[in-house]
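Long-time lurker. I teach an intro course on protein structure, and each term I like to show students one example going from raw sequence to a predicted 3D structure in token notation. This year I'd like something fresh instead of my usual example. Would anyone be willing to generate the tokens for the chain below so I can use it in lecture? Attribution to the forum is fine with me.
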Amino acid sequence: MLRVLRIAPTRQAYPPTIRGLFLECTTARVDRFPPGCPLDKLATQIANERFGRAVEHISLFLSPTGCVTPAHYDANDVLVFQMRGSKTVAIADQPTVSDPQEDALIENWSPGEAQTFDVRRGDAVLIPRGCAHSTFSTRASLTLGIGLL
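-- Reply from a regular --
Happy to contribute to a lecture. Here you go:
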């Protein structure tokens, strides 16, 4: 079963709808894809063939224009594919946490302390584990994230 999660705080009651999230300018994260589904197969193939790694998780992010994903770091390396639209991704030059055990939000982090990349359809970015990062959607976007083990 698919699960839709909110990335940012909201005024709306659960469960969220994709349309409702877009109206709030909130990113929706969709995960828990069935094993063996086409997206699972694609992610596994990319992780194995290109990186020699296994997949920890797969997420789709749907973001309206102008939406910001707050600064955070992930416990795994994450390979991000921009499937539709565009966004600016800011990634810290050095890990914020040397051995993260879980994903976490970061307060008081400025993208000025980072490299920025403008990603468009077809672009990919590897975000190292423990590195602070945030995004800004310059156009409504669909992004695939593959967490690597």
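Some talking points for your students: The first strand starts at residue 3 and ends at 6. The chain has a mean pLDDT of 83.
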